[in-house]
Write a structure and sequence with these properties.
This protein has 122 residues and is of the alpha+beta class. It folds into 2 domains: 44 residues, no CATH class; 59 residues, no CATH class. 35% of the residues lie in helices and 21% in strands. Strand 4 and strand 5 form a beta hairpin.
Amino acid sequence: MDSTSVLCSFNPSSLSYVLLYVEGASEMIARVMRKHQVAVAIRPVKALKSLLVHPKDKQEKEEITDCVYKIPCARCEKCYIGLTGRKLGTRLKKHKTELESIANLLPETNVLQVCLRRTNQH
């Protein structure tokens, strides 16, 4: 629990307090408050529902479709920005295959230079 968490809240309509559960401390505080006829309820910091329920399954990055992506250059500060309707993983594999085929056709040429000349951009 971080230092900004609220450990106790007051409900004026029912004149009761709700304490967040802190092992050892919450029970002791509640006991003292009940001794003075103050209504106290203790609730967990995290509810079981928040731990178990996830409305959407998390999507792997490679499975995302209809997205804009950015491929940074390993040799300089420039990058390639693309848009695809296909799965991102499929499109990235296609980029890799294209670079490998260029490197195989022109083994003596730097692949980065070929890319720059071919696309006239980086």
